[in-house]
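Design review, sub-item: ligand-bound model
Attendees: FS, YL, KQ
YL presented the inputs for the FE2/S2 (inorganic) cluster complex:
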Amino acid sequence: MQHIPTPHNATAGATPFSLSDAGLAECRAIMARYPEEFAKSALIPILHIAQTENDGWLSVPAMDAVAKLLGIQYIEVYEVATFYSMFNLSPVGKHVLEVCHTVPCMLRGADDVIAHIGKRLGIKPGETTKDGLFTLKAAECLGSCGTAPMLQCGAKYHEHLTIEKVDELIEKFRSGEKRNNYTDRIEA
Ligand code: FES
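KQ shared the predicted structure:
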C-alpha cells in the first residue's frame, strides 16, 4: 500500500502538522506514565490528541509527528491508526455519527436509524455532508448492546435511539459550536 499525496494530505511539509503547546504537554504527561523504552504504550491516547488537533482526522504528517514524538517508526503508527475505526484517515465532518449496526443493534432498528439519518442529511455511510457538519459511519459493536440501538459521537454514547431522538440529536449538533471529539470529557 502506498500513500498518494493529496492537496489536504501531502508529505514533505506541504500540509504540516504540529501539536499545540497544551496538546504537547498533555502528550508528555501521558508518556510519563510509561518507562522510556515502552513509549509506544502511549500511542493510542496520543493519536486521539493529534486527531482532535487536526479537525477530527489523522493526516500522514500528523501520524509522522506522533511517531517522532514517541521515537518509534512511522509504520508502527500507521499500523495502529489504520486498524482502529475510531481513527479517521481522511477529513470528516464536525460531528461524526457512528451508528452501530451489529446484530443486537440491528435487531433493535439500527438499519432504520442509519436510513433515517442518511435520508435526512442526504448522505450514505462513509460520506460527509456538503456543509462539513456531519459524517455518517456504520460501526461494528460499540459494547453497548444492552442499550441498543445506539450511536457514538465523539466520546459520548447516545442510546435507546428512536427516530425522534435522532432528530433531536441532529438539531442539537447542528446548533452546537463545538466539534465532538474522542478526547472530550464526559459529564456525569
Ligand atoms: S451491537 Fe450495538 S453496541 Fe453492541
